[in-house]
Design a protein that fits this description.
mainly beta; 2 domains; eight-stranded parallel sheet; globular
Length: about 750
């Protein structure tokens, strides 16, 4: 061997008598001291843990997060402790039964590999015979408490399914008596003492006021909020982190991310203490909201629920083995089956330092923010071709065909019912001019002898062969037409006035689309089968950090949106070429595609992802990454997006339409012809984690700078110190060294 000169002086072998630690700085782990009598050894530092007490590395001790939640309440009548019922400084949820895998060695031996969470995630349409599978038709709906974050707090809904432990289905009052409620709304805001408190609808003196205006005096009825939420079992999360509030959410099992998680920018009872930071009811600086998601097992992204159901009525699942074209649909039973789909519409982050001007991706102003069609001929032009890209709701559905039986299934769609300021929630479907809406004949007869309006609050299917099970139709229902939107910044919504519609959608929030079966005219509806739902194009943005202590970060792949191997892009393009390659040829090929496969132009082709851009802005820490083979499964389904919008084309020249400019990566833009696809599922480090500042970058201003403040601080003896951006993060229970004496 020879010396390796990496510095002006040669590096000495550790066993050399001349080896130096340079004053104890560079240690090599060998017992003893160097030539200057400085210690060479360094103790092992245990990894941060959420499981033990954090005291001496004892993982068997009560979790410090249990102490900060369950044990943080007030004694009620000398008999009960309010913290154990969710009324402490931290929020404790005792959902012990919300788990999916056996909890002990005997149970795991009995179940074998079939009881693995990963096994369940990778195999759509599982059943609950062996263990508690989360598959519910095309949707993965695990047992767990649902946390829906909002600008001023959060709603925690317990698992109320019949098989749930009866003692865990409902919330209890601080004294332990049963409220009878499965959901509890929490609000955070400043009390008269200048500290942030947390109250809920069971807090003394609050009640129904939880949904109205709360005063600082009312917030004093609740404890000071320490920012921690602890769930004994699974937790399911989505929504808007309360504006300028920092939260650490911990699960003793698995956390499922089911939609966008967004930093709050709207005014609430925290920002009201500093009105100068608000313009038009929004922050005029970067948000101080922050969220840490920490789980004992996994933190799992669940794309199957991006546009999945929040509730159902009269629903069951028909297994794919019953000959349904490879689908395992959710069946809504007549006469009044219903499902409520969820849709998050995040704000565009193109100007994140000013929440007062942030607008939704789908907005028509200002120009660079809207969904403009990407132009490969000018790949870096933000407005692309100049054409706007509508956002559509895609439904793959069918009438459950029986003979004899109803000839059609009819449904209506309510957009944000009960949450319209000046709009109307009933959706108006194209009827008279539609190729697929079979309600048109009855609609015409109802309006006879007057001419029937072109649009109606009803959709029917069943007359066409492709609308009857075991065949399924995939139809696009326009949700947002950017040229027909009117923004309401103060109320954080925008009106949609196309096709006789006048409904409002919420910005930076979750929207609800209630699909319900109904009789139409004198004709009863048949059973309805829903096999797929998605909104395209759509952005899903997760602004949070995750930590999986014993498992990993995972993405549930699900099945392809289109499972028909005959409905392929190459076959479609070959048919267009045979027909002459003109606009008329493409229209003819699209008509044949509809008749053969029941798919309209916006429906993805077989084995192609829907245009849903997924961005994770934060950080990921895990025990061990999943095997490459498992990562490949989710990358195959969610790691890329075709740059062409399935079969959509320009009727003027027959050219294929492209996805929005904002969905195309810089890598694709450098070589559009050679790269007909773009990357997806992008993880970006949030610089706020490094600097602890709201905008993530500038650190040369005071900690209380109004434009770029530190996210969290503490003042001790008159000196203000900066803290990590999320509260009560785990630390190592051991120290590297305690100090030494020569």
């Amino acid at each position: 061997n020879s010396w390796l000169n990496t510095t002006p002086a040669p590096v000495l072998d550790s066993y050399s008598n001349l080896f130096s630690t340079l004053g104890g700085i560079i240690r090599d782990g060998i017992s003893g001291t160097d030539s200057n009598q400085d210690a060479r050894d360094v103790g092992y530092t245990t990894a941060p843990t959420i499981l033990g007490s954090g005291e001496g590395g004892d993982a068997s001790a009560i979790s410090r997060y249990v102490k900060m939640t369950r044990d943080s309440g007030r004694i009620q009548g000398g008999a009960t402790y309010s913290g154990q019922f969710g009324h402490g400084e931290g929020i404790y949820v005792d959902n012990f039964s919300d788990y999916q895998t056996p909890v002990d060695e005997e149970g795991r031996r009995a179940a074998g590999g079939s009881a693995s969470l990963v096994q369940d995630w990778l195999n759509p349409y599982g059943d609950g015979v062996t263990f508690r599978s989360g598959w519910h038709g095309p949707f993965y709906i695990p047992v767990g408490a649902m946390v829906h974050f909002d600008k001023d707090g959060f709603i925690v809904s317990r698992n109320a399914f019949p098989d749930q432990n009866v003692n865990e289905r409902t919330w209890r009052n601080p004294d332990g008596s049963d409220t009878g409620l499965t959901a509890n709304r929490y609000r955070v805001g400043y009390g008269t003492d200048g500290q942030i408190h947390v109250v809920n609808q069971a807090t003394a003196g609050i009640g129904n006021s939880i949904n109205g205006t709360l005063t600082p005096a009312q917030y004093m009825n609740g404890p000071v909020f320490n920012g921690v939420m602890y769930f004994e079992g699974n937790a399911r999360v989505r929504g808007v982190i309360p504006t300028d509030v920092q939260i650490t959410l911990v699960s003793g099992r698995t956390i499922y991310i089911e939609g966008s998680i967004l930093k709050g920018v709207q005014a609430n009872d925290v920002t009201s203490a500093t009105p100068a930071v608000l313009t038009n009811g929004r922050l005029n600086r970067a948000s101080k909201s922050a969220l840490m998601l920490m789980a004992k097992d996994y933190v799992t992204l669940n794309p199957t629920m991006f546009t999945g159901p929040s509730s159902e009525r009269g629903a069951s699942v028909a297994l794919a083995s019953s000959g349904l074209g490879g689908y395992s649909p959710v069946k809504l039973g007549a006469p009044d089956g219903a499902t409520t789909l969820q849709l998050d519409l995040p704000l565009s982050p193109l100007s994140p330092a000013d929440g007062a001007t942030l607008l939704p991706y789908e907005s028509r102003v200002p120009a660079p923010i809207g969904y403009y069609e990407w132009d490969p001929a000018s790949p870096n032009a933000p407005t692309g071709t100049g054409a706007r890209v509508n956002t559509n709701l895609l439904l793959t559905h069918a009438l459950e065909f029986t003979n004899p039986g109803p000839a059609n299934a009819f449904f209506n769609l309510q957009v944000n019912p009960g949450n319209q300021v000046s709009g109307a929630s009933p959706y108006q479907f194209e009827t008279l001019g539609s190729q697929t809406n079979t309600a048109q004949i009855i609609w015409a007869s109802i309006n006879n002898p007057a001419p029937a309006p072109a649009f109606a609050p009803i959709y029917g299917l069943g007359n066409e062969a492709w609308q009857q099970s075991p065949k399924f139709e995939t139809v696009q229902i326009p949700l947002i037409a950017p040229a027909s939107t009117t923004l309401d910044m103060v109320n954080n919504r925008f009106a949609n006035t196309f096709n006789a519609n006048s409904y409002e959608l919420l910005m930076q929030n979750t929207n609800y689309l209630e699909l319900g079966l109904t009789q139409f005219g004198t004709q009863a509806s048949g059973n309805y089968m829903l096999a797929r739902s998605a909104a395209v194009p759509m952005d899903v943005r997760i602004e949070a950090s995750v930590f999986a202590e014993e498992g990993s970060f995972f993405v549930i792949p699900g099945d392809w949106f289109n499972t028909n191997p005959n409905d392929r892009r190459d076959v479609f393009e070959q048919r267009v070429a045979v027909l002459g390659g003109t606009a008329a040829a493409r229209a003819q090929a699209a008509q044949e595609r509809l008749e053969n496969f029941g798919t309209t132009p916006y429906a993805p082709f077989y084995a192609e992802p829907a245009d849903i851009k997924i961005s994770i802005v934060g950080s990921i820490a895990e025990n061990m990454a999943p095997p490459i083979s498992q990562q490949a499964e989710w990358q195959k389904k969610w790691g890329w997006i075709p740059t062409k919008q399935a079969g959509v084309f320009n009727p003027a020249n027959g050219a294929s339409r492209n996805i929005p400019f904002s969905h195309v990566s810089a890598w694709t833009k450098t070589s559009p012809a050679a790269r007909p696809f773009t990357e997806n599922l992008i993880v970006s480090y949030d610089p706020m984690l490094a600097t602890g500042r709201a905008d993530g970058f500038s650190t040369n201003t005071p900690l209380n700078d109004p434009v770029n403040p530190a996210i969290r601080t503490t003042t001790i003896n008159g000196v203000t110190h900066q803290l990590p951006p999320m509260p009560r993060l785990p630390v190592s229970p051991t120290l590297a060294f305690f100090g030494e004496v020569k």
